[in-house]
Here is the input.
Amino acid sequence: MRRHRGLYLSAEILTPVLVVVVILLATNAGKTFFLPPLQNVFVAFGENWLFARIPVDVLPSLARLAVGYLIAVVLGIGFGVLLGRSRGARRQATPIVEFLRAVPPPALLPFTLVALGIGDGAKIFLIALVCIWPILLNTIDGITGIEPTLRETGASYRIPGAARLFRIELPAASPQIFAGLRASMPLAIIIMVVSEMMGATNGIGFFIVQSQRSFAIADMWSGIILLGILGYLLNLLLTLLERWVLAWHRRSHAIAR
Amino acid sequence: MLTLTNVSKRYGDEQTGTLAVRDLTFEIGGGQIVTIVGPSGCGKTTVLKLMAGLLEPTTGTVTVDDVEVRRPPEQIALVFQDYGNSLYPWMRVGENVEFPLRHRLGSKAERRERVDAALGSVGLAGLGDKYPWQLSGGMQQRVAIARGLAYQPQILLMDEPFGALDAQTRADLEDLVLQVRERFDITVVFVTHDIDESVYLADRVLVMGPRPTFIDADLVVELPSPRDQIETKALAEFSRVRGEVYRRIRASSELMRTGSVAVA
Here is the structure.
């Protein structure tokens, strides 16, 4: 256990610190215009993100991310349940789903720019569009994989429809649903940034492009680092949520093994 | 009273489908324990699902108290063999037992009382806060029985409930079924492929024939109550009925192996 803890600390803190030191030395030795000394980037990070530009750029980005992601969660799980329950509907929908999933969402940017403009709507639409597929497909998988006995128990005890959905089917499918939620989170961040880089008036992606265009390279890098940190934190948040919601799953499997 | 009238069940269509159950007619009730025994693969589970309203008969009717069964009737509770998938692992033991009562009983206090009484009657008092997977297989099946009892059914259907358990646990749970019947005055329909079990528990044994299954024999068991794993099984009546059931099942198995589908 102690040894384990030591390894964990080294992975979470020691190794990253080492990497930062190496970058610090390299950027000071090299002096390339596009790779400014790391301490300058840190100063820029402090000036921009602690906390001057948080309401200007970070909050709008996070709001788009959250709304787009939540729309994808609701629609992905909703349609996933419907398609998971009905073999016929699933067969009808599969080719369409596979086609839509294959279209790279940034390819739709020119369309959304014209059709929906440069406001939040276009970005939210794209984020939802890219996030829905992993959630939808994993939910279908989860629902179709439910043990027949689990359903038959619900039927034989005359459990009403809503309780059957929320207390039996969704919990039973939740391990797969969470796999979909985890897969789509990084996609959401990617599309958020890309959509803000093409046609936006604020947001982290917009800030990065603006900095690059005005040759504020340290600012540009501070934005990139912020994205890394945000991605890390959002993933951590999702992991903690999953550990809490799926505690029964983890513990029952630990016992079975 | 559970009545099957000319019930048959075909899976698939008229030409290519298989007939699983052929023209069953019988009646079960009156607080008896009726065991249904037959060779493996003869269609026992199909018969049970027809009674439980989980399958619709192709022809004929299933009725409970003269009302035709079209969906699972509220007078019936079902205990599955696969307790691991029949109990919900995301609910605690008490929640599992309470879950079917939520839409039946409005008062929370009343539900809790029923849950506690049911857990007590299967020897699991005080374990309501555990999760099913923290319990042994035998205890999990007790939880499933408690859930059935808390539902207060007229008829408790049990589908090879102890098939996955070791011999000692199995014997304990067989005695639990006998106690529960005395205490709650319910009719028990018990499907099994274990001949000894089918005779030990039964007031009446229905021996099923090979697929498409039918009633090969309808035997009355005249064993005294209360029953005892050692003494009851030493009685002449026990070995008489056991021998009768055994002969029929052996003949059926023979038929199923050789492939000819004969009518007894």
